[in-house]
Amino acid sequence: MPSQISFGYPWYLSYGHLVVAVVALSCWLFAYARKWSTTALVLIGAVTLWSFAAFLVARFGLDVNGRLPLPTEMFLVSGQGRVLDMGAGTGRSSLMVLEARPQTTVVALDLFAESYQEHFGYRQSGQERLLANLRGRPGTSCHHSDRRHA
Question: Residue 117: what are its φ and ψ, rounded to 5°?
């Protein structure tokens, strides 16, 4: 199902380990060509394999920018209820619940402090991204309230 949903995680969370793997592999090839010691080749090879494995886990195992399935079918077995998503961020958990339990009402709450902007960038505010993601899911209605208390 194609969607316009974007969780906005930075590229280095999905691909950062791959950069390390490419650099380490280049170092390993250089070391091999220069006939470095077996110990050095093994250490560089270990870093190469670790970073490539970490890339595979982060990108495909955790799927940081992808949608998640509900971790347990025992959550809201009745298929309806009310859920408070505190620290909703870009709505990844909210969408997980709404897609698995469409009859559920989810209240997504977040402070969207300066650390959010530092992590996700300044192109779009946290509120805008959260609302866009929730609106991007078919059958979801969004009600927005911006209540700020000192």
Answer: -60, -40
Other CB atoms within 10 A of residue 43 CB: 15
Secondary-structure breakdown of the chain: helix, strand, coil percentages, each rounded to the nearest 5: 50, 10, 40
DSSP-assigned letters across all residues of 30-70? HHHHTT--HHHHHHHHHHHHHHHHHHHIIIIIS-TTS----
Report which secondary-structure segment, H or E, holds 80.
strand 80-86
What SS3 class is residue 107? strand
Q: Which residues pair with 104 in a beta bridge?
A: 81
Contacting residues for 8 by C-beta, under 8 A, at least 6 apart: 65, 90, 120, 121, 124, 129
For 41-86, the pLDDT digits (tens) are 999 999 999 999 999 998 888 887 788 888 888 999 999 999 999 9
